[in-house]
Amino acid sequence: MNNSDSLNEGSITSGDNISFWIDTTPILSFEKPSQDISTEVLIIGGGIAGLTTAYKLLKAGKKVVLVEDGFIGSGETGRTTAHLTCALDDRYYYLENTFGRESAHLAAESHTAAIDEIEKIVTTLQIDCDFKRVNGYLFLHPSDKEKNLDKEFQAAKDAGLQTSLLNYTPYLNGAENQRSIEFKNQGQFHILYYLKGLAEAVASLGGTIFTEAHADNITKEGASVNGFNFNAKHIVVATNTPINDVLTMHTKQHAYRTYVIAGKIPKGTLPYSLWWDTGDMESKWVSQPYHYVRLESFDHKYDLLISGGEDHKTGQEDEEGISALSRYERLEIWTRKYFPMLDEINYKWSGQVMEPFDSLGFMGKNPGDENIYIITGDSGNGMTHATIGAMIITDQILGVKNKWEDLYNPSRITFKALGDFMKEAGNMAAQYLDWITASDVNNTADLKAGEGGILSLGLKKIAVYRDYDNTLQAFSAVCPHLGCIVQWNPDEKSFDCPCHGSRFAADGTVINGPAKTDLHKIQVK
Predict the structure, then answer these.
(1) Phi and psi (nearest 5°) for 458?
(2) Of the given ranges (175-189, 299-313, 411-425), which has the lowest mean pLDDT?
(3) Per-residue pLDDT tens for 98-122?
(4) For residue 438, what pLDDT band results from cuts at 50, 70 and 90?
(5) Among 159, 265, 360, 472, which residue has the least CB neighbours within 10 Å?
C-alpha cells in the first residue's frame, strides 16, 4: 500500500483560534483508508503519543498501523506550548505526600528520561525542530506561601533533580526579590516539525499512517475505521482522552480549557528559558491554574513570547463569570507585568488539558484489558507524559517490565487523593442540573451569524448555531457520551460538555472524546 504524504493547508478546526504552530506550519496528511487491514499493532491518534509509540515499536520490529481522525498534529498536540520539563505542574512535595518519596523520585526520573528520549530522537532522525536545552524557573503565585517554595525545593532535591534556590527570578520584570527554583537542563522544541520528523520516520520504517480516519467500535480484536475492519493483536488508544471506554477513565480525570497568547519581542531581549508560577491557591478549581511562559524563534529579527494560563473546567467558564475574551485580556495583563517588552499580540488560542485526580498521567494497559493500552492524563506536562507513555507501552507490548509502569498504571487507586476525586466528582454531578436551568438563547432570531447557544423547547434542550450564510443549524444539546447538556464555547465556536470534556464543532461533529458520535441533528421551525 502506498503511504504517500502531502502537506495539507486546509481548515482543521471548527473555531476561529488555532495555535501558532498550526497557523504557521503546513500539516501532514496521508491517505484515507480504502480497505480492511490486519496488523500487529493498531495505534489510534496522530499526536506525539501515537507517533512516538509507533516509531519505537517499528524500531523494535513490530508491524504498525496508525490512524488519525484529522491530520497529523491537528488535535491537542498542535495546541501545546511545548514545554519539555520535569518541573511538574503538581508539586513534588504533593507527589511525595501522595505516593511516597520513592515514587516521587520515579516521577522525576521518568520525565527527565522523556526529555532525553526526545533529544535522542531529534538527534537520531536529524529533525530540524529547534530543540534546545534551557533552564526553567518556578516562582510563587501571589496567593502562595514562601514556605511552599522551600518545601518544593527540598522535595525536588529529594527526587534527584538538578535544582537551585535563587533569591530572584531571572529575567522577570520586578522580580529582583522574588525567589525562585531553577530547574536545570529542561527543553523546548517546535512541536509540528518534530511530529513531521516522526511521521516521516514511521513511514520510512514500514509503518502505515492513515489520516481523516475515524476509529470507533474499539475492541480487543481491533476497531472499525471509516467503516473498514482494522484487526490487530495490540490496540493503543493515544487520544487526548480515551474513546474506548464509556466510564472507567472518565471519572479519574477531568477536562480543563487553557488559554495562550503569543507576541513578538526583539531577538536577544531574553534568553530562551521556561517560566511558571506556582498556581492560584485560592482558585475554585481543583487544578489550581498557573501561568507558563517561554520563547520560540520567529524570524531573524524577532522571537515569539508564548504565555498561557487562566484555565477553567471545560464548558464551565460561566462558573466564574469570566468570558473567554476576558481570559485572554487577563492573561495579557499578567504577561505584560512580567514581560513589558512584549509587542502586540499576534496569536491567541486555547487547548484542552486532561487533569488526573492524583496528578500523574495514565499510561499502560486499559483497566480490564490485556491488549488495549491507553495514554491519557497529560495534565500540564503532555509532551513528557506522552513520551513516557510510549516508552511504557512499547515495553509492555515487547514483554519487558518497565520500572515506571506501576506508577502510571491506569488501574491504580490513590487513596490519599480521594478528597480531590470527590470534589471533581461533585462538580461533574452538579452539571446535570443544566437539564432544569434556563437556556442562554430565548429566540433563535436573536442569534447573529457565527453565534450559538442552548435553547429550551419544553423539556428538550437544543444546541443552535447560525452559519455565516445565515443558515440555522440545530442539534440535541444532550452529549451522546453520558447525557450532560453541552454549552456553547464562543471562543472556539464549539459545543463543549461540562461533565467529561467532549467537544463538538458548530455543525455538531464530534471533535474531542470521550463522545464517539456527533450531536443528533434536529429540525427547528
Answers:
(1) 65, -125
(2) 411-425
(3) 999 999 999 999 999 999 999 999 9
(4) low
(5) 472
466's grid cell = 447560525
CA 279 – CA 357 distance, rounded (Å): 16
pLDDT at 1: 38
What is the C-alpha to C-alpha distance for residues 334 and 317, in angstroms, rounded to an integer? Answer: 19
- For residue 417, the 8-state DSSP code is G
Which residues, in sequence order, are CB contacts of 165 under 8 Å at separation 6+? 149, 150, 153, 179, 180, 181, 182
Written as one letter, the residue type at 501 is: G
> Is the pLDDT assigned to residue 268 strictly greater than 70?
yes
DSSP state of 3: -
DSSP conformational letter for 320: T
Contact 219, 273 (CB under 8 A): no
d(CA 195, CA 64): 17
Separation of alpha carbons 467 and 401, rounded Å: 53
The secondary element (H helix, E strand) that includes residue 325 is helix 324-338
Q: Which of 142, 137, 140 is nearest to 282 (CA)?
A: 142
| pLDDT-above-70 percentage for the chain | 90
Please enumerate in sequence order all residues whose Cβ is within 8 A of that of 143, keeping only pairs 6 or more positions apart, or say none. 280, 281, 282
